[in-house]
Each structure stands twice: as structure tokens, then as C-alpha cells.
UniProtKB/TrEMBL annotation:
Gene3D superfamilies in alphabetical order: HAD superfamily/HAD-like (3.40.50.1000), Putative phosphatase, domain 2 (1.10.150.240)
Protein name according to UniProt: Hydrolase
Highest taxon in the source lineage: Bacteria
One protein family per Pfam: Hydrolase
Annotated signal sequence range: none
Cited InterPro entries: HAD-like_sf (IPR036412), HAD-SF_hydro_IA (IPR006439), HAD_sf (IPR023214), PGP-like_dom2 (IPR023198)
Length: 212
């Protein structure tokens, strides 16, 4: 019998990530029209999300396309990562930590090159769950069905035994289309209740604590 599993998104779920306005501040500082940064960097951001560019290459492109010197590139990227990483959703993280040994736990995240190292250092997600599937490492983003297949495969779990939690409706719908159960994250209380209901309805992992 396949063990029940829970797979969570990071940004907007395990991390609280409100917009900080950093891009607008840089556009004002550089006297660029609104929207210029993302327009110039769009293909670089996309490449970073699927891992077809290195962090060093991202920095080189930021310098070239925005006319920044090395200290400015460092400050620009620091602002990017401050918004990207947000702050930890402590209540949900604590709840998920308490699930270890009762079900299989994973993460599926649309990410950016460099995310694993930073999130591991800050939040230790590698100790929270057994498997983390990052888009920049597998070269596939949600809502592509292959992203959900990769997450289930990483846990050796059948899609129907997995509950996927995300804050983007399109990703929730795609997970359901891939055969998973899915829940749109809106707040901790409803999400915790949905996870508890999922665990009550499925088989448990018995006899040992699962190691990440």
C-alpha cells in the first residue's frame, strides 16, 4: 500500500513573500521607466527558473543589461533575494515538522538558480522534508504536468496518495489534472485542517521515522 504524502510549495506557503518594491526602487535610482528591469531581464529570469543559466551568468547579464558595476550588482541581487526568501511561515513549518514519521513529505517549488543553497542555510527545508524538487534543478516549472510527476517520483508515491499545497490556483488545478489531491493555500488554519483530513483518510507510515 502506498504511504500518504504531502507536498508543499515554498514561496507564499512555507515562506511569506510580500512584494518589497525593490524593482521599482532600482528603476527610480537608475532613472528607468517603470517595467524596464523586467523587460530587459525577462529571458534571464526565465533561464534562472529552469537552471539554464548559472548565478555568475545572471550577475553578468544584470551588469550588462542594466549598466551596473560590481557593487551595484551585488546590491541588486541582495534585494532580489530578500524578496524571494521572505520570512518563514513558522506556524505551518512547525506543523509540518510534527508530521514526520506519519506520512511522506516533499516540496515542489518554482525556483531560481541559487535557491537551494540560500533556503537550506536560512530555513533548513532539507531537514523538514524528505525530498525537494526545484524547477531550476529539473528544468521544468509548474504547472507543467512533468513537475508533479517528478515530485511524486522523488517520494516513490502514487499521485492519488499525495496532497499538494500551493498558493497559485493554476498550479492547484494542474496538480489535480495530474491525479493528485490539491489544496489552494489561503491561510494556515484551513491548510492545516486540509492536511489533517488527508492524513485521516489515507494509509500511515508505521513502525519507523522516515529520514530525509
Amino acid at each position: 500500500m502506498t504511504a500518504t504524502c504531502v507536498i508543499l510549495d515554498i514561496g507564499g506557503v512555507l515562506e511569506i513573500t510580500p512584494e518589497t518594491g525593490w524593482v521599482q526602487r532600482w528603476e527610480e535610482r537608475l532613472e528607468l521607466p517603470p517595467g524596464t528591469v523586467h523587460e530587459r531581464m525577462r529571458d534571464v529570469w526565465q533561464a534562472g527558473r529552469v537552471g539554464s543559466i548559472s548565478e555568475r551568468e545572471v550577475h553578468e547579464q544584470v551588469a550588462a543589461r542594466l549598466g551596473l558595476d560590481a557593487p551595484q550588482v551585488g546590491a541588486f541581487m541582495a534585494d532580489l533575494w530578500t524578496e524571494y526568501l521572505g520570512t518563514p511561515n513558522e506556524e505551518l513549518i512547525a506543523y509540518v515538522r510534527g508530521l514526520r514519521g506519519n506520512c511522506r513529505l516533499g516540496i515542489l517549488s518554482n525556483s531560481f538558480v541559487g535557491a537551494r543553497e540560500r533556503e537550506t542555510a536560512l530555513y533548513h527545508f532539507d531537514e523538514l522534508v524528505e525530498q525537494i524538487v526545484y524547477s531550476h534543478e529539473i528544468g521544468i516549472e509548474k504547472p507543467d504536468p512533468r513537475a508533479f510527476e517528478a515530485a511524486c517520483a522523488s517520494l516513490e508515491a502514487q499521485p492519488e496518495s499525495c496532497l499538494f499545497i500551493d498558493d497559485v490556483a493554476a498550479n492547484v488545478e494542474a496538480a489535480q489534472a495530474a491525479g493528485m489531491q490539491a489544496h489552494l493555500f489561503e491561510d494556515n488554519a484551513r491548510t492545516i485542517a486540509r492536511i489533517a483530513a488527508h492524513l485521516d483518510s489515507g494509509p500511515r507510515v508505521a513502525g519507523h521515522v522516515l529520514l530525509g
